[in-house]
Specification:
6 strands, binds zinc ion, globular, 12 helices
Length: 297
């Protein structure tokens, strides 16, 4: 069975090189990962909480550990989902000063404590079954976004990296979420350039490192897409993927991640009231509102 899956994947891969648009039209994530995921989920269905070890029957995290997962509390930024200090402020300082290609980003929790442990278990520990648990968190965090979208997609991985890790955690998450939301994921992006590991890079370096790394698989008639990833750190990856999705024909791109890093500056105020109630639709990428504010006094 393993052999037949590998062959069918290899054929799809070759077809993708020859006719990316057709693959996009086929529009479904690779059979290999999907079948591996369902097989592994069956094998590793756990009898214990992944975080504290108490016996469990139906999930990977017990109710106590679940309650301790670090979650953002409202108010948060209407665009990127970062916590903001005052409920009447729509946008965080970053979003008020540098608009994004994506329309909105949301995360289930912060990359800390048990949630970071679960993500590391999936990503580096090879515990693919944790995608089942984390997809349930995505479903919760995506309640505002999922009704708006037509297609789920995910941050792609380069082929060398995929060979090294054996799976793309963002794709696994999208597949598990797809089952819950009845929206099979589409492979809408390819990674066209190798990038340095973003870990350890500063915010500016992350944006530079990831710039031009993704391209659309082909043209799509889908309008509204939801990009799935494990962690949102500076937004650099989400931004670059959103740019490529728009280039591929999407009109609106939303972003949903399991976790986001805690804000570097936990408390900030948007100066005065000039950024309140901004119409998000009027913000063009490249608009420098902060400079405008400073120059305008
Ligand atoms: Zn537990
Ligand atoms: Zn924001």
């Amino acid at each position: 069975m393993g052999v037949s899956i590998a062959i069918s994947w290899s054929r799809r891969g070759e077809a993708g090189d020859d006719d990316a648009a057709e693959l996009m039209a086929m529009g479904r994530a690779t059979a290999l990962t999907r079948e591996l995921a369902s097989g592994v989920l069956g094998l590793l269905y756990p009898p214990h909480c992944y975080l504290c070890g108490v016996p469990l029957e139906e999930s990977f995290v017990c109710p106590d550990c679940y309650r301790r997962l670090p979650r953002p509390q409202p108010p948060w930024c209407a665009r990127c989902g970062a916590p903001v200090e005052e409920p009447e402020v729509d946008l965080c300082l970053e979003c008020a000063t540098r608009p994004w290609f994506f329309d909105r980003a949301r995360s289930f929790g912060f990359y800390a404590g048990g949630l970071a442990e679960l993500i590391r278990g999936l990503k580096y520990g090879g515990e693919r079954a944790l995608a089942w648990e984390l997809a349930r968190y995505l479903l919760q965090a995506g309640d505002e976004l999922l009704p708006r979208i037509e297609a789920l997609t995910f941050v792609p991985m380069s082929r060398p990296k995929l060979r090294e890790r054996g799976f793309n955690q963002a794709e696994l998450l999208a597949q598990e979420l797809g089952k819950l939301a009845d929206l099979p994921p589409v492979s809408a992006l390819v990674k066209v350039r190798q990038t340095e590991d973003q870990t350890g890079l500063g915010p500016g370096e992350r944006f530079k490192n990831i710039s031009g790394a993704f391209a659309p698989y082909g043209k799509t008639s889908l309008q509204r897409g939801l990009l799935i990833d494990d962690v949102y750190t500076t937004g650099a990856t989400a931004e670059e993927c959103a740019r490529a999705l728009l280039e591929g024909g999407f009109q609106e791109v939303y972003v949903l991640t399991v976790a986001r890093s805690r804000p570097r500056v936990p408390k900030f105020k948007v100066p005065g009231s000039r950024f309140r109630n901004l119409e998000l639709a009027n913000l063009e990428p490249g608009t420098d509102l902060l400079r405008g504010a400073v120059q305008g006094g």
